[in-house]
Amino acid sequence: MIKQKFICVCGKIYFLYTNYKKEININICCNCHPYYSKNIKKSNFSTIIKNFNKKYEIYFKK
Ligand SMILES: [Zn+2]
Fold first, then answer.
1. Tell me: the pLDDT tens digits for 15-62?
2. What kind and span of H or E run contains 22?
3. Residue 51 CA to ligand 1 centre (angstroms)
């Protein structure tokens, strides 16, 4: 496990331990969450979360 940089589209940078070797760009983080929940209908929001989890599943499993 190495400390890796996660960069969110909102500009927030996180350092997390992962096996992934490169910087990782993410589309949503806990910083964006309230923004999305306010501005996107709940049905759309749950779809976004599902897609996100599917996409990044590989990183979080390790
Ligand atoms: Zn963010």
1. 988 888 888 888 888 877 765 555 555 556 677 778 888 888 877 665
2. none
3. 16
Angle ∠(59,51,20) on CA atoms, nearest 5: 15
Distance of CA 36 from the midpoint of ligand 1 (Å): 10
At 12, list the tokens: 């927030």
The CA-atom distances, in angstroms, between 61 and each of 9, 26, 38 are 22, 16, 29
Ligand 1 centroid vs 19 CA: distance in angstroms?
21
How many whole angstroms from 49 Cα to the centroid of ligand 1?
A: 13
Distance from residue 37's CA to the centre of ligand 1 (Å) = 13
The two tokens of residue 29 are 């983080």
In order of start, what are the domains of the chain with their CATH numbers? 2-61 (4.10.80.400)
